[in-house]
Amino acid sequence: LRLYQELAKEKKNMFYSPLSLSSALSMLFCGASGSTASEMRQVLGFEIAKIADDKVKVCFQLLMSTLEKVPESYTLSNANVVFGQKGFSIKEDFKSLLSESFKAMILEVDFQNESGKAVQLANDWVKEKTNGMIPQLLDSLDPSTVMVLLNAVYFKGFWMHRFNEHSTFQQNFYNKGLEDGAKMVQMMHQKESFPFADCGTYKALQLPYKGKEIAMLILLPNERNGLEDLERSLSSDFIKQLQTKMRTQDVNVTLPKFRLEYSKSMKADFQSLGMNAVFCPGANFDGITDSRNLLVSEIVHKAVIEVNEEGSEAAAATAVVMMLCSLRFDPDFIVDHPFLFFIYNTKTNLILFTGRVDEL
After folding, report:
1. Which residues, at least 6 apart from 291, have a Cβ–Cβ distance to it below 8 Å?
2. pLDDT in tens, 261-273
3. Any transmembrane segments, and where (predicted)?
């Protein structure tokens, strides 16, 4: 949630995968020591969740094996890979940890002499793992790069109750919550039984995907311009709190068809959250290599989602680039103004994707 609030300061559309970011950065954390690891513990939430350092790899091992057993009703994959500079010494223990806990292989490339080819290999890997939704994550890489940790998350789900295409028509969406921001967009409609809660200043609706484990949770402020107030009011366990308030009932749903594409360098955002040592000379990654001058030069994240009558398709990819330095009635739920949404596992509360729609 702290990362969300940091990103939301830009006050624009946003879509990212907490799962993708935490997977990529947790691979890095498992090779960090000292103050470098301490800062990462705080920012990644391991401290507040009371997860011991040696249990992080166990948690991801469980997560990866769980994701391998998803039902046929939807597609969900979380893939990891590490590209390393030819001749750069990576400790065998770290290689084993990546393989066992993150199902990540290490591929040797030549950043120094063939950085363009390395970029192409990385982008091809991301394109394949996101089913073509993200054809390019990296534009270029510095020849002094020695390691790139990549993660790609892909989800495709079909609504449990799909929207009828004949009930989709043009309607106003109030961009930025403003009357003069009104724009005609394709709006989907249906009346169906869904988990719903009226929380006073906002309403919450849960749209399940086939298979029931994954759902889209939409938070809609009552006021057209109420998005920022809603964001400020969210606590870290808001999903758990909402689940106690939600009741399944008939709801008249109006939801826009939309596609979001979001690409961002996350370095400054993680620095604002207190993760600084990883980017500085003197960063301690002695679990990865004996080299004392390894640091993170960039964290790049890209995510795409498409929502239509049938369901949703979403993908996200993260690259961590390392270099040697240098109420009971039928309520209306009309999504015609800025809103938040989360795609998450309803059994574990694991958030796969987080989105903020400010304008369409």
Report:
1. 88, 89, 324
2. 999 999 999 999 9
3. none
